[in-house]
Amino acid sequence: MATSVKTGELLEWFQDPANRCYFNSDLLTVKPSPISSGVGVFAKKTQAVIPTEDDVEENNLLLRVHKSMVLSPQTSTISNLLYDHGLSGMYGLVLAFIYEKEMGDKSPWWVYLKTINYNDDKGNYLLPLFLHSEKEKSILKGTEVDFMGGLDSDDLLEHFQTSCQFAEDVYDEVGIAVPNALKEENLNEFAAITLAVASRAFEIDNYIALGLVPGADLFNHDASGEENVHFVTLGEVCPYCGKEDGCGHEDYGPPESEEEEEEEEEEEKEEVSSERVEGDSEDDGSDAEVIEQLDEITMDYVEQIENELKEEKERKDAEDQEQSETSDDEDEEFDHSEFFMNPDECCDIVLERKIVKNKEVFNTYGELPNAVLLVKYGFAVEDNIYESLCVGPQIVNFRKENPHLEERFDWWSCMGWILLREEEKNNSKDEEEGDDSDEEEEEEEEEDEEEEEEESWLFQCRVDHPGKASTQLRAVAKLLTMSTVEFEAMVADESCDGEMIMRELANKKPTKEGKVLLKRWIQERYATVGDGKTRSGELKRQLRKTDPHSTRFCFITAVLNEKKLLENALHNIK
């Protein structure tokens, strides 16, 4: 959630043309949000979405930031140092933030940086989960946060050590003082900054990758799927220079190394110098001709030359004066819509759903379960519709206890789950309206496929909101409880494909044995959450007595959601 402060100055900052940003202050304002300890964006008036083809004046545009004003490793003041040390992504972005903040008002992002708060009301650092007390972390024992490694400190400790080493190297190389947050005794400050930066970072394009977009982080997250706005930017740009097209890198390859570029520059200088020498030699002849003609010059000719020079000077002075006046007028009559003619060079927040006067305007950070929200953003949402719990560890234990089922496990991990996954994808495509999916959607699907190839089938065995066993989980339960004759007949069938697996394993009415196995796994998963005993009703009562802005409130919310989900799943298995 947005915990930004000092936003009034930021809204003024948006009005300065030099900052290459636009905030729709006619439609939006910023004030404290009732759903978080920070601020949010609110509508000044009600407005519906204008169809794209009719939105010639870009009335759906709420925020626009030129990519040159996105704080990133590529745009920061220390970009050359980050490049030399090979630091990009989140490592580079956190360092860019720290060093820009050290610059104070000399940084072009200073006003924006002051809005990013990483302290609570009492001045304490807002820390990632693993730096909380053992008592607080014990609440999350056995939850999805614990399962995905959200309580593990190894990644951030490595990040901290790398960043501290960078600061020391930079001090030795160019004499830039080591920032306070990058001193070995200040892990907590670094961790708080990292959490603040990570929770605000947006994926920009395949050149910048991650960046901080002034103003975009003011919009809070809606977990119901009814967000009002979307973050939009052109992601497919040249990965070497960031240009949309025309750079030539796609045709001729990436830029050459700096040493090669310097060698080319030296060669060009030598060529230019050589040309000048040749040019001087050629000019000698023409100069001689002019000298020969000087004998014929009269006083009238000299006077004519002087008049021409005087007229030329007067004309140039008049042009300079006119240009200066025009420039002043343009500054006074600056129009943001004229300045941002190319949206492909900008990051936008655009209206996606109707906004209502005095109501908060929400963005979405994605279809994220509470485990991800807690780890990355530091909050959880009650009744999160994207909640999903893995029962993979319970299946692993079952496999160890039943070696006689190893043949079925092997077949499933090598073939069965892949065929079923492909069938699920095909069914999902058929359900979509129309067949004219654009190129971006196809590229996203290809990326998803690459990620899924690296996943274990166990991660697909889940209980989803509001308490439904996933397709893969139902299929595995059926596979492991079907008779030997049924299993051998299925795998021996040459026509066995995803459709058959979907029909015979996932969608077939579960047997009594299958239900018993599902219940067992879900009950075992339930027993790992928190103390394993407290039910959702008791957690709900605890939540009412807890400060809604406290860390404990978020932790209890996450556990409550998981308990309710598993209780619903057990209830649904009849």
Automatic annotation (TrEMBL):
**Entry-linked InterPro entries:** SET_dom_sf (IPR046341), SETD3_SETD6_MTase (IPR050600)
Mind telling me which GO cellular component terms the entry cites? nucleus
Signal peptide feature range: none
User: Which intervals carry biased composition (Acidic residues)?
Assistant: 256-270, 319-335, 430-456
Quote one Gene Ontology molecular function term.
protein-lysine N-methyltransferase activity
Q: Where is this region: Disordered?
A: 247-287, 310-336, 425-457
Protein's name according to its UniProt entry: SET domain-containing protein
Look up and give the organism this protein is from. Answer: Pichia membranifaciens NRRL Y-2026
Give the lineage.
Answer: Eukaryota, Fungi, Dikarya, Ascomycota, Saccharomycotina
